């Protein structure tokens, strides 16, 4: 019995070495205090009402919830999930997938290597150096996208009610376009600016449901280069500008 008792510490130590305990993602919440973390090896979950959230580097899944607090992330290597009401989101580099839900806060992603999904009401969305699939839905927020050259086929799917949209295409870009916009009779300028050679069709002027003003549907389709990427754009009252960089 004595031998068995003395061997327990050794057995426990051996078990700990054989099965190391993994650190759990950091979880932290506050009402008005700011949250700041320089390094998150396992990612984290943070929530505030009005406090700002600042993260240096996150290697795991990162989840942030705020009402009016601003969010700044320098490096996110894992999945990034953000929900905010009016707080702004600024991400310098997102290597993993990004999912954002915002009411009026602006969203800025400087480098997005993974797929991006953004839903916002009136906040502006700015994506620089985006290389994978993108989905953006907005009520009145403007959108600016700068696409990088990609090694695989991707889908760019954006839609808005009244926000203005600008898409910068990289040199040598190849894609197929499926664009549908609306123009009101009182608007003298076409809601589409492009010099890619797309086929543009102007629909007939018709009475809009619930509105006395006439509107027409403008569609633009076509293939540029190898046609690999798929660009889908829908708008009710916004404009679209396609720029070949």
TrEMBL record:
Residues covered by the DUF4097 domain: 50-172
Recorded superkingdom: Bacteria
Keyword Signal included in the entry's annotation: yes
Keywords for this protein: Signal
InterPro entries, alphabetized: Toastrack_DUF4097
Segment forming the signal sequence: 1-23
The protein's name: DUF4097 domain-containing protein
Provenance organism: Gluconobacter oxydans (strain 621H)
């Amino acid at each position: 019995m004595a031998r068995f008792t003395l061997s327990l510490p050794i057995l426990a130590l051996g078990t700990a070495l054989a099965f190391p305990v993994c650190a759990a993602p950091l979880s932290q919440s506050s009402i008005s205090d700011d949250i700041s973390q320089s390094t998150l090896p396992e990612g984290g979950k943070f929530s505030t009402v009005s406090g700002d959230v600042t993260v240096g580097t996150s290697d795991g899944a990162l989840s942030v919830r705020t009402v009016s607090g601003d969010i700044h992330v320098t490096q996110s290597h894992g999945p990034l999930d953000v929900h905010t009401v009016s707080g702004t989101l600024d991400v310098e580099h997102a290597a993993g997938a990004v999912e954002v839900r915002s009411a009026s806060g602006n969203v800025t992603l400087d480098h997005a290597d993974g797929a991006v999904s953004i839903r916002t009401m009136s906040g502006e969305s700015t994506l620089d150096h985006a290389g994978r699939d993108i989905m953006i839905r907005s009520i009145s927020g403007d959108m600016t996208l700068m696409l990088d050259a990609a090694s695989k086929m991707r889908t760019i799917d954006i839609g808005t009610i009244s926000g203005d949209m600008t898409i910068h295409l990289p040199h040598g870009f190849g894609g197929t376009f499926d664009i549908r916009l609306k123009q009101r009779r009182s608007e003298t300028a076409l809601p589409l600016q492009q010099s890619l050679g797309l086929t543009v069709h102007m629909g007939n002027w018709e009475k809009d449901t619930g509105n006395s003003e006439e509107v027409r549907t403008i569609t633009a389709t076509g293939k540029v280069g190898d046609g690999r990427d798929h660009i889908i754009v829908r708008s009710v009252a916004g404009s679209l500008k396609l720029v070949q960089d």
